[in-house]
């Protein structure tokens, strides 16, 4: 075995082989895959081999499309058949709510180039005569769906990689990973040692155990999964004879099952509610080409539905039941990318649909390792969407929930209940008593809205029962004063002799002088947005950077990659050492004046200034800034004082019309100011020019900053897209995100977020459109639940376009 490699890939399942293939394809032939057994010896060999493009998340759908389109390439290169059968697909809806979901999926597919169309139950029956059309309200017919041979496909990746010059060692188990002082990895196997610059954990069923070798607990868990194969069925033979084709690949969401033809019979798999984790604590190293004992009772409820929806199955004998384990991350998406604090260690695990997603995972990871960037937006599968809070027990609860809900509808206003509450603020119980309906982000509970007693969210694609209450919360902010907790934001303290110069290079903005704040875009080297923050210069206390709570791990990884190794800059997260409240509205100053003896008059504490002030009996950092676009203040304190501050503000504000508001009201408020938010308007896909953040980029500052050259180039060519705000003509539903934006009869963009702007009284959508059309008056429309709703380009913010309120 070779003793050095640029990259060692651990694991020869479909994912590891795809990573190896992509590395070799991009010229990295000094790549070595180590497999403890034969290739495919984890979950790969017993997969059902189904593949489809459709996914609720457009970025994952793109990845799936790429994966399926790749199979012809690896087949040709390797001369190894993948056994691919492109049968076409049928997604079935037995309820109107599911049909609405399919409409939204179809709409998203439009700008991804996914071919699909909505069909009636009768057309579904024509495509799949095994079904009873009276059980369904409609369906979606797709093109790029089918199935393949899992083993053939994995070997096709492997052979293609070898042909391109990469290497594979089978029966070689990685037993230890040790990082050397120079950052290289000692990969210690049962057959000797390899020194590598990079190691990739593609350990599949053993990804957790490989993680333990580097001291990390990756949030993955294996679940048992069953599918059964029927005896040959005359009905299947009849379809084949009549159409000259195989039976289409179908997903019956309400029956929570998928089915496809397998030889002369049908293969039927289910995601049963009574799901079962496998090897919760330790995957045995001697597990290989074995199957688990089937438990038909567990899937009996799904089979009952199957017999009703597909009556022909009632008479079919069962030839075989397969029960095998495969891994999931807590949200069901892959875990890909570099891991914070472990230079040269990469994850390609938790891939629950290796035959739909494996190609895209390999592409992203190979790009990332070789170019320093995945090359497309991988937020949905970035390993950094989970932090230390995603413990083993959390993962266990969330993976079970995810498995059991794999084919369930998740409504846009639906919060899932498993593993909660996990991270809470000292105000949690107090806010709960006030009616807070909590949402969760990065494991942290934050109020969405404050419901009247006894009222809970009704889940819907349409406006829901929170509408009037959220409107009242918005009204309180616009007419009096509102209070929202901000503890869930990410907060970082940057100190040390070189803190200023380091931030100057990290961030594209001009650094604020002591006592002031600035909006701070952070860019990658290619000039795309990797963060948007508020930066406060606290003088002797250093700098405070405030950003998105869900991106904390993601940003920490980036910060740590950029930190100098000489200790001249110290960056610490203040996740649990700084808590926050924000007050906003025309009476916010009056409220603040009642709880502090300091002078906070308009002239003494100006817009974008920040001070440490006595508030009540404690001391707090008070910054004059507000995401509501109104007069407002953010108040940051030690969590021990949060309750004291909160109670002080609540009692002082009683006669000012003070009201608690949640993130749904905040969304409505920021939409009418056309403020973007991280993971929606601001993502690594977009440049500051495209996102409307160019004015915060200080191209002429004395320090050079990351992404500066790319920004300069883009100013010349103008970029491709523009972020725009639209008022949508809609009755009872608002956009959620990812809906297509039409200009005349063509799709020219996509929605990033939106909702009802209660103060302005209109439905708003923000989204990116082609630059050439961005300033035209239309004809614009936005597709919402299958309808094209006329939309009006909103060129100025709907609320206070000159910013007089927040500066007043
Ligand atoms: C019953 C069933 C049906 C399925 N149906 C489908 C389907 O229809 N479509 C679909 O897309 N997906 C399906 N899947 C899921 C699919 O099988 C997985 O997504 C895929 O196999 C994941 O591949 P992997 O390479 O990540 O992991 P694995 O296949 O588990 O591969 C990991 C490999 O790493 C090796 N390894 C681990 N640790 C070490 C070490 N320390 N040293 C050396 N080697 C090591 C293992 O031996 C193994 O070969 C199904 C799964 C099951 C169980």
Task: Describe what this molecule looks like in 3D.
The protein is an alpha+beta fold. The chain contains 20 helices and 38 strands. α1 runs parallel beside α9 (354-371), α2 crosses α5 and α12 (467-479) packs across α17. Flavin-adenine dinucleotide (FAD) binds next to α1, β3, β12, β17 and α9.
Layout of helices and strands, plus pairs?
Elements: E1 4-10, H1 14-25, E2 31-34, E3 50-51, H2 58-78, E4 89-93, H3 96-112, E5 116-119, H4 121-127, E6 138-142, E7 146-147, H5 150-163, E8 167-169, E9 174-179, E10 185-189, E11 192-201, H6 207-213, E12 221-230, H7 234-243, E13 249-252, E14 257-262, E15 265-270, E16 277-278, H8 296-309, E17 318-328, E18 335-338, E19 345-349, H9 354-371, H10 392-404, H11 428-433, E20 436-441, E21 444-450, H12 467-479, E22 481-485, E23 490-495, H13 499-506, E24 517-523, E25 529-537, E26 543-547, H14 552-562, E27 570-573, E28 579-584, H15 588-595, E29 610-615, E30 618-623, E31 632-637, H16 642-652, E32 658-660, H17 663-671, H18 688-691, H19 708-717, E33 721-728, E34 740-743, E35 746-757, E36 762-770, E37 780-784, E38 787-793, H20 804-807
Parallel strand pairs: 1-2, 1-11, 2-8, 4-13, 11-19, 22-32
Antiparallel strand pairs: 3-7, 4-6, 5-6, 9-10, 10-11, 12-15, 12-16, 12-17, 13-14, 14-15, 18-19, 20-21, 22-28, 23-26, 23-27, 24-25, 25-26, 28-31, 29-30, 30-31, 33-36, 33-38, 34-35, 34-37, 35-36, 37-38
Helix pairs in contact: 1-5, 1-9, 2-5, 2-9, 12-17
The structure holds flavin-adenine dinucleotide (FAD).
Flavin-adenine dinucleotide is lined by residues 10-16, 34-37, 41-44, 46-51, 173-174, 202-206, 210, 225, 227, 322, 324-326, 351-356.
């Amino acid at each position: 075995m070779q003793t050095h490699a640029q990259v060692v890939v651990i694991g020869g399942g479909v994912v590891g082989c795809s990573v190896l293939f992509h590395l070799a394809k991009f010229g990295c032939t000094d790549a070595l895959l180590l497999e403890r057994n034969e290739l495919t010896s984890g979950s790969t060999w017993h997969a059902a081999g189904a593949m489809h493009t459709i996914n609720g998340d457009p970025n994952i759908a793109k990845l799936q499309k790429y994966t399926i389109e790749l199979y012809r390439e690896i087949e040709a290169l390797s001369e190894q058949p993948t056994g691919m059968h492109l049968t076409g697909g049928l997604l079935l809806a037995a309820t109107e709510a599911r049909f609405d979901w399919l409409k939204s999926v179809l709409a998203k597919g439009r700008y991804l180039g996914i071919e699909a169309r909505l069909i009636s139950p009768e057309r579904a029956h024509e495509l799949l005569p095994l079904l009873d059309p009276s059980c369904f309200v409609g369906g979606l017919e797709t093109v790029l769906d089918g199935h393949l041979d899992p083993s053939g496909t994995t070997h096709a990746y492997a052979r293609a990689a070898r042909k391109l010059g990469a290497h594979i060692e089978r029966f070689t188990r990685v037993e230890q990973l040790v990082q050397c002082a120079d950052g290289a990895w000692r990969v210690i196997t049962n057959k000797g040692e390899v020194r590598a610059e990079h190691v990739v954990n593609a350990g599949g069923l053993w990804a957790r155990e490989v993680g333990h070798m580097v001291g990390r607990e990756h949030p993955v868990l294996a679940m048992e999964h069953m599918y059964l194969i029927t005896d040959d069925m005359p009905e299947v033979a009849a379809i084949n004879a009549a159409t000259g084709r195989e039976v289409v690949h179908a997903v019956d969401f309400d029956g929570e099952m998928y089915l496809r033809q397998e030889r002369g019979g049908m293969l039927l798999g289910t995601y049963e509610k009574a799901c079962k984790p496998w090897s919760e604590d330790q995957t045995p190293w001697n597990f290989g080409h074995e199957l688990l004992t089937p438990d038909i009772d567990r899937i009996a409820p799904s089979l009952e539905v199957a017999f009703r929806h597909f009556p022909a199955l009632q008479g079919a004998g069962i030839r075989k039941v397969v029960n095998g384990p495969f891994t999931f991350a807590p949200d069901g998406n892959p875990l890909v990318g570099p891991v914070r604090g472990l230079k040269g260690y990469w994850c390609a695990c938790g891939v629950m649909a290796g035959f739909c997603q494996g190609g895209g995972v390999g592409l992203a990871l190979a790009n990332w390792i070789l170019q320093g960037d995945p090359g497309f937006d991988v937020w949905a599968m970035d390993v950094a969407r989970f932090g230390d809070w995603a413990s083993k027990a959390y993962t266990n609860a969330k993976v079970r929930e995810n498995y059991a809900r794999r084919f369930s509808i998740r409504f846009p206003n639906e919060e899932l209940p498993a593993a909660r509450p996990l991270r809470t603020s000292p105000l949690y119980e107090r806010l709960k008593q006030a009616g807070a309906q909590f949402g969760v982000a990065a494991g942290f509970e934050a109020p969405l809205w404050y419901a009247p007693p006894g009222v809970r969210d009704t889940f819907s694609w349409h406006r829901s029962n929170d509408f009037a209450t959220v409107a009242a919360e918005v009204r309180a902010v616009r007419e009096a004063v509102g209070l929202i907790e901000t503890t869930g934001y990410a907060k970082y303290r940057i100190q040390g002799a070189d803190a200023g110069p380091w931030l100057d290079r990290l961030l594209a903005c001009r650094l604020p002088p002591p006592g002031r704040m600035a909006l701070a875009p952070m860019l990658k080297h290619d000039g795309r947005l990797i963060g948007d923050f508020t930066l406060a210069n606290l003088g002797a206390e250093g700098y405070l950077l405030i950003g998105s709570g869900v991106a904390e791990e993601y940003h920490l990884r980036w910060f740590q990659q950029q930190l100098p190794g000489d200790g001249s800059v110290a960056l610490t997260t203040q996740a649990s050492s700084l808590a926050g409240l924000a007050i906003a509205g025309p009476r916010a100053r009056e409220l603040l004046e009642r709880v502090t003896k300091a002078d906070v008059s308009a002239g003494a504490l100006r817009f974008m200034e920040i001070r440490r002030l006595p508030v009540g009996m404690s001391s707090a950092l008070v910054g004059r800034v507000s995401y509501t676009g109104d007069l407002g203040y953010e108040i940051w304190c030690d969590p021990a004082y949060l309750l004291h501050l909160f109670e002080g503000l609540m009692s002082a504000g009683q006669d000012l019309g003070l009201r608690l508001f949640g993130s749904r009201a905040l969304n409505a408020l920021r939409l009418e100011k056309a403020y973007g938010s991280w993971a929606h308007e601001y993502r690594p896909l977009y440049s500051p020019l495209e996102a409307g953040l160019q004015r915060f980029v200080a191209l002429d500052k004395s320090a050079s900053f990351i992404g500066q050259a790319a920004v300069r180039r883009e100013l010349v060519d103008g970029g491709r897209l523009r972020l725009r705000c639209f008022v949508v003509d809609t009755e009872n539903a608002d956009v959620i995100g990812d809906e297509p934006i039409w200009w005349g009869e063509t799709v020219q963009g996509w929605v990033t977020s939106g909702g009802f702007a209660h103060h302005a009284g209109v439905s708003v959508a923000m989204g990116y459109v082609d630059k050439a059309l961005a300033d035209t008056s239309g004809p614009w429309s936005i597709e919402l639940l299958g309808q094209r709703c006329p939309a009006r380009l909103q060129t100025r913010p709907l609320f206070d376009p000159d910013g007089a309120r927040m500066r007043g």
